[in-house]
Amino acid sequence: MRLQAVDQTEVLRPLLADPALGPLLASTRLSIGPAPGPLDLAVPEPGHLRLAAALAGRPGARVLLRYGLELAWLSGLPALDLAAARLLAMQAAGRFLRLLPRAERDAALEDPLLPSFAALADGPPAPDRLRAAWATLEPGAAPPDPAALETVARLWRCAPPLEALLLDGGDDRLDLDPETGLNRYLCAPYPEPGIVTFSSCTASRIGEAPYATAEAARQALIAAALADGTGPALRAASARVTGALLDHYGIADLAEAVLAASGTDATLLLTGLLAAEQPGRPITTILMSPSETGSGVPEAVQGRHFASCTASGTLVVKGHAVDGFPPALAMRSLAIRTADGLPRDAAVLEAEAEALIAEIAAAGGHAVLHAIDGSKTGLVAPDRAACERLARKFGPRLDIVIDACQARIEPSIVRRYLEQGFPVLITGSKFFAAPGFCGAILFPRARLAAIAGGGCLPDGLGAYADLTEEGVSRRCPGLLMRWEAALHEMRRFSGLSATDVREAIDRASSATRAALMRDERLRLIQAPRPPGPVWSGRRSVFTFAVRGAEGWLSAEKLRPLYVALSQDMRDRIGSTPEERHAASVRCLLGQPVQLGSPALGGLRIAFSAAQLAQGGECRTELGLVFAKLAALLDSRG
């Protein structure tokens, strides 16, 4: 951001500090001066936005600035008609308006121009709606010609603002609360500096650098769609993402990456692939404790809808079978923790898994062992050696699927799994801290080609993914932008040495354990990792139980504490300046999880790749988290 006419900037400075607009502000030359017309802003030339000081006093100033910044860069696309650029910028501003918390949104709509922007938030709009919006924007001007309207319609899918794209292509867990502007994970779709975040085992707030990377990818996608068409542009962007993903794990020679909206979507897609590979045969999935995977995974492994709306926006009935899945899909589960939260003995767990597989095979069925390499609380179950022994023992009667959705796993271990024929489920939205809904299946290449070539995939998967001759793929712009954010952190993390990562984890672990030991109401939950020199043998998720006046708290009773930690509580807790400061800091932890039995739950401190890349220094932030938690517990009595 280069700002001219400094003497008039103070009135605009708060507006220009908006983190949601950071990448666009950084790439735009701003000046202060006269801006004829109804907007109090103008774009004299591509990349240059002139603001009138009066803009700061308008109720819709933030939305109008979003429009101006969008128009400034769109004007630099040589093949884009100016009228089309203005309409696309209106759409971006209208979508941005819709994301604001209700009070701010209602106030903005007092601006007489903003209803016309809001009218373009849905789409793609018919030509008459585009002309009506244009008449508000450019009163008395000739309407845009049909070619400009056709260009707008062609680019509409790729042209929403990044803040909106990061919410597209998921289910209702990404929907924003209209009052707070946060989704179910308490995250906004843009950076929010100053929030203490240890939530990468659940969902993280996007960082400023990944956000800027995703914004650059969005602009490149729009430019490519303008030049080559939306379909080819999305295919090329998808190929770049999957290629980078395969390169990160060093598996480009033996696997394909199948993108999916989430880890649960990936599980459903994988179930469809395995069912197509075993036509007519009853399949039973052996699932490790569902509370340690995902709430929708039990439905997904049985070929059922796990939410009321799919990632493509199709309304479905939760729990009903997905069209085309065979009826003979069943599930069995094995507990990986005891009722008091302790990890179960690995040998006992392996023996139980072996007995279940033998029972399924004896009945003429096909078993799928859904092993976890990094559960919600950090467990590996069954362990890697056990998976290999079971695969050798049962051969073609057993498929082993590796749930590595936490992505706290060495690339060399992923490669070893794939070499043994085990598909691997991953996400970019846990360890690599991209926004929620960013999944993939890493699938052995020859095997995937054989399944896709058979043409037997369930028809109902079309509501979750594009079914193409190449197999299953998602080419949703929002999904691609979320993966771009993840890949930013993956590239940065890949540049660290193994020694640096191990030392960063050790520092983070030491600080976390020390903080937990200071309060007898907190108990660290065991989560042993497989031994070895690799960094993923070290723990980066720390689950702890919390004791209230009534005893150890369940996940349900921990939920109010989890939410209160994320809010400014200075007016409700704390009696000293220090306590009130801690109470004011918004702290986002991993959401409550059930441990062994419904009566026992835990909160989680989870370290992301970005935090480890910064050296794992976190004592100050952890001190604020636990000081605020202690004050909250004190206030409950």
Topology:
Elements: E1 2-3, H1 13-16, H2 22-26, E2 29-32, E3 41-45, E4 48-51, H3 61-74, H4 82-99, H5 102-108, H6 114-118, H7 127-137, H8 146-155, H9 162-165, E5 196-198, H10 208-228, H11 230-249, E6 255-260, H12 263-277, E7 283-288, H13 297-300, E8 329-334, H14 346-362, E9 366-373, E10 380-381, H15 384-394, E11 398-403, H16 411-419, E12 424-427, E13 439-444, H17 445-453, E14 466-468, E15 471-473, H18 477-494, H19 498-517, E16 522-524, E17 541-548, E18 551-552, H20 555-565, H21 577-584, E19 587-595, E20 597-606, H22 609-613, H23 619-636
Parallel strand pairs: 1-2, 2-4, 5-19, 7-8, 7-9, 9-11, 11-12
Antiparallel strand pairs: 3-4, 6-13, 9-10, 12-13, 14-15, 16-17, 17-18, 17-20, 19-20
Helix pairs in contact: 3-4, 4-8, 10-11, 10-18, 11-18, 12-17, 14-15, 19-23
